[in-house]
Task: structure prediction
Amino acid sequence: MTVRPLATIAALLPTVAFGAVHYDTARVIDAQPMYETVQVNTPREVCRQAQYAVAQPARNNAAIPVIGAVIGGVLANGLGHDGGSRKVATAAGAIMGGAVGMSIASRQAQAQPVTRYETRQMCTVENHITTEENLIGYRVRYRYQGQVYVMETDRHPGDTVRVRVDVTPAL
Result:
């Protein structure tokens, strides 16, 4: 008689020490997708036509004093009567015409710059931010032996899920 209780206790020891683990299938009730909202930045180059003012300095024409000297010399040449006075008048006319030409050129150099407008293409980088919903997994409700359980998976489970059943006796 003493052998029997010892055999029963010995038979229970592996179950108590290690438990019984097996796998089964549970029926999926529903699988709801889970999303994560993210913002995506997409830089874009945007180009526009724009008007720009371009200042050009007034021209300094070096030919004006020379032209003034020639015109002054020609006009004064007609004033002299004989060869000597004509040469003096021509030289004096050329000097005076050159001085007048230099004065005109100097005033032009001090004049306001001329402004003109150019159309140029202007490009900038603009950030275009969009909101996206990324699927991150599924919240799955399933039924096993009359109880409803919830788990999360990274993909859709289908009609059934595999469950791990761990049976441990309560002492």
Strands lie at 20-56, 114-144, 147-153, 160-167.
